[in-house]
């Protein structure tokens, strides 16, 4: 879906401009996104396998939930919305624990340069929580042991979205500190 998103400068500050998500990617403008990592108190982490029609990293295992922040939308509201849209779980903003912001850049093609500031959160769920994947965006949802996920990272597992800026290591460290 093409939606309006805010444009950021190279330091992640609002420029006062917004444009369609497709144009942000075409022009390579920085923009905010939210990443929500769902985990259990028993050391499981929820990963989603991206849909086959995704322009970036189709069918790769990725963050539990990720999405763009709508123009003028708060980060927490975007995270809550994306959790509901992608995995069908209602959460409150108070259930989100912000662990950092990561600047990422991926050139997928000549007309698709993804330059984001990923506002990254943790959210504890119960592994028995009923999940409902968003058919248009998500191929599969699966709980993995945190150690299994760590092995994937250490082995540069090819079915995992490429890691950058130590994001995965930071997520593992933050989840492990809460177990």
UniProtKB/TrEMBL annotation:
It is an enzyme of class 5 (isomerase). Residues 29-173 form the Nudix hydrolase domain. Keywords: Hydrolase, Isomerase. Pfam families: NUDIX. CDD domains: NUDIX_Hydrolase. InterPro entries: NUDIX_hydrolase-like_dom_sf, NUDIX_hydrolase_CS, NUDIX_hydrolase_dom. Its EC number is 5.3.3.2. One of its GO terms (molecular function) is isopentenyl-diphosphate delta-isomerase activity. This is Isopentenyl-diphosphate Delta-isomerase. It comes from Flagellimonas maritima.
């Amino acid at each position: 879906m093409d939606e309006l998103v805010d444009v950021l400068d190279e330091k992640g500050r609002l420029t006062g401009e917004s444009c369609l998500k497709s144009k942000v990617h075409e022009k390579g403008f920085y923009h905010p996104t939210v990443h929500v990592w769902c985990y259990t108190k028993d050391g499981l982490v929820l990963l989603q396998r991206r849909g086959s029609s995704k322009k970036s990293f189709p069918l790769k295992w990725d963050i539990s939930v990720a999405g763009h922040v709508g123009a003028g939308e708060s980060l927490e509201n975007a995270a809550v919305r994306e959790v509901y849209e992608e995995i069908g779980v209602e959460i409150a903003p108070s259930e989100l624990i912000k662990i950092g912001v990561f600047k990422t850049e991926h050139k997928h093609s000549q007309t698709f340069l993804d330059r984001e500031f990923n506002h990254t959160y943790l959210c504890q769920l119960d592994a028995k929580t009923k999940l409902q994947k968003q058919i248009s965006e998500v191929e599969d949802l699966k709980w993995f042991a945190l150690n299994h996920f760590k092995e994937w990272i250490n082995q540069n597992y090819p079915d995992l979205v490429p890691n950058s800026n130590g994001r995965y290591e930071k997520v593992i460290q933050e989840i492990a500190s809460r177990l």
